[in-house]
Amino acid sequence: MKLEQRYEGKAKRVYATENPREYVVEYKDDATAFNGVKRAQIRGKGEINNAITAHLFPLLEGAGVPTHFIERLSEREQRVRAVEIIPVEVIVRNVAAGSFSKRLGVEEGTELRRPVVEYCYKSDALGDPLINTDTAVALGWASEEDLTRIRELALRVRDFLTPYFAARGIRLIDFKLEFGKTQGGRVVLADEISPDTCRFWDAETNEKLDKDRFRRDLGGVEDAYAEMLRRVTQPT
Ligand code: C5P
User: Fold this and answer.
1) How far apart are CA 146 and CA 205, in angstroms?
2) pLDDT digits (tens, 9 = 90+) for 140-177
3) Are residue 10 and residue 99 in the same domain, yes or no?
4) Label partner for 124 (CA 20 to 30 A): which of 38, 65, 176, 177?
5) Which terms are listed as keywords in the entry (predicted)?
6) 3-state secondary structure of 59
């Protein structure tokens, strides 16, 4: 099934398959933070992030967000549509935290009056710098139409996930999305949605249940990921 490796990122590997329109994605336990300066393995992370993404992407499809996801193949692998990743990371924020709080001097946990969509250039070498959509068009990373669609889909993801997590006792603080283009030129949601790429706070205690436990040396990283898998798959 898996042929040659096409790409290796910090948390996943992507393989070609016999079908030129499909890839296999393999989730790793490797974790990095601060642009690769801090590295470790989080035991069970690959399986958990695969399971969480495989649970959420079909739900998002049902909510009108086309995705690259086809099916979960094994504990660490999923079959996806082959896409070319648009090198623009899309961050959606409900509540101030992380780099937003630092950059603007806004206390973490401050509710935002409306969701904020931010864009970064996907570049490890440059540390994913903040950009605006003019920059992405000017440098040929995406068209104006693609970016309009990406923003619409990112907000649709937010409108679906925020109440989905709230019903499971989780505040969705912010998250990062990546989009790709199929061979037919369609923009689809790609990459993953997991505690690596979202901030999740317990609705009662505000306990962090995401990668900030690793970034900030809070301990209990594995338990937090396992708890998020439990909450995500919990029926309401
Ligand atoms: O660090 P920052 O506050 O900009 O992160 C915003 C959100 O995007 C967080 O949920 C974080 O986990 C996610 N993120 C990511 N990959 C990056 C940068 C941020 O998944 N390269």
Assistant:
1) 39
2) 999 999 999 999 999 999 999 999 999 999 999 999 99
3) no
4) 65
5) ATP-binding, Ligase, Nucleotide-binding, Purine biosynthesis
6) helix
